[in-house]
Amino acid sequence: MTDMRKILLLQGPSSMFFAYLGAELRHRGAQVTRLSFCAGDRLYWRTRSGQHVAFRGRPQTYQSFLSKLITQHEITDIICLGDSRFWHTEAISLCKNMENSPKIHVVEHGYYRPGWLTLELGGLNANSGFPRDPHEILQASNGIQLAVTPEYKSSFLRYALLDIGWNLSNIVLSPIFYPHFRSHSLHHPLQEWRGWIAKALRGKTTTKNRTTTLARIARHQGPVFLFPLQLETDSQIRIHGPAGGLRHTVVTTIRSFAKNANPDAMLVFKVHPLDNELTDWRKIITNAAQENSCTNRCVFLNGGDLDALLKRSAGCVTVNSTVGLTAIDFGVPTHVIGQALYRISGLTHTAILDDFWTTPQPPNPELASAFKRLLIHRTQISGAFEGSGVAVGVTNVADRVFGSSRSSSR
């Protein structure tokens, strides 16, 4: 019985990152297998990166297929992008019940962005094995220095082209070669592209409205609360957020604000920079504000410097966005509505939302510092899925995978 790592790569980012990772793992002596679920997965894979296996069956046959694949290939490690896609949640569930099961390494965009990738065993964010007890965090962080945030160049155009290539290949080829594949996205790619084109055409109007809104926020004399909107397709919203989704959360937040905030308070909803505007957030927010008689106190903002807005804010409300980590880092009181890694007493406002508007609890500076140092030390690796950080990210993921023993716990 050899000690060779036999690694299975599941669905990864719509880029060449997993192909480069496969090549690096093979260079270090691992046996690498890529399991593809759609034509896009196959498009961004290369023979030199390892062998390829396609799953073309129905979702209900996946666990049986995967179990046999793990046994036949003697898989020791599984690497996947996120822990919330069907293929990955099923793999995690299967491995929990397997004897001598493979270790599951979950990679994602960094909790602290840009410059970082997240890599954890078994799950991310609400599913993370990271400690939640403040005393444990303070004790475990002793002696750990705060890492310097790396910087890498990236290209939104290249990112967009890679995403288009992945989706276009699925539109054309997946119905033929992967007839049972269904994307995790809420919208068809053609709908998403339509949204991006329309957004680009509205660019001048958006810029003008943004300038006016930012000036209004700057002039405001009372407290300003910020709600950074996440993407409706975000798995953290869909799986770890409140029932009813992001739209329902926005409406209930406005209702709470209208009933409990001081009359001079303002609530700003900032659109996510990667929102394709298929959801009319301006209309949703305006209607909810009208229904709750707080139209002049609820503001829709499309764009703007997030860090500057946070530093100006009396508090930040989020479902579970990583923006909450930035807010805590700045010492801004933060209320978490969903389940999040950082929903910890001493870091976030632990009372109900209704109390947040008048008595927001700021983060404990000592705990916030310890949390950031420990979180980066244990879960963050330098790198990126696209751009100049790819090579560094690939090397660091491989280092972590090879540096963890198969028998170690989460």
Descriptive overview:
The chain is 43% helix and 14% strand. It is an alpha/beta fold and 410 residues long. The chain has two domains: 6-156 and 379-403, 3-Layer(aba) Sandwich (Rossmann fold), CATH 3.40.50; 206-372, Rossmann fold (3-Layer(aba) Sandwich), CATH 3.40.50. The chain has a seven-stranded mixed β-sheet, sandwiched between helices. Strands 9-8-7-10-11 form a five-stranded parallel β-sheet. Strand 5 (103-109) and strand 6 form a beta hairpin. Helix 5 crosses helix 16. The longest helix has 17 residues, at 156-172. The radius of gyration is 22 Å and the shape is globular. It starts with 5 loop residues before the first strand and ends in a 7-residue tail after the last helix. Residues 406-410 have low confidence and may be disordered.
Question: What would you say about this model in short?
Answer:
The chain is α/β, with parallel strands linked by helices and 410 residues long. The chain is built from 17 helices and twelve strands. It has helices spanning 17-27, 39-43, 62-72, 86-96, 134-140, 156-172, 174-177, 189-201, 203-219, 235-240, 245-260, 281-291, 306-312, 323-329, 353-356, 365-379, 390-403; strands at 6-9, 31-36, 51-54, 77-81, 103-109, 116-121, 224-228, 266-270, 298-301, 315-318, 334-336, 380-382.
The low-confidence runs, each spanning 5 or more residues with pLDDT under 50, are 406-410
CATH architecture of the largest domain: 3-Layer(aba) Sandwich
Give the % helix.
40-55%
Number of helices: 17
Q: Report strand order across the widest sheet.
A: 3-2-1-4-5-6-12
Per CATH, what is the topology of the largest domain? Rossmann fold
Mean pLDDT: 93
DSSP, total strands:
12
Question: What string, H for helix and E for strand, traces the elements in order?
Answer: EHEHEHEHEEHHHHHEHHEHEHEHEHHEH
The CATH C-level name of the largest domain is: Alpha Beta
Largest sheet: 7 strands, mixed
Radius of gyration: 22 Å
Q: Tell me the overall shape.
A: globular
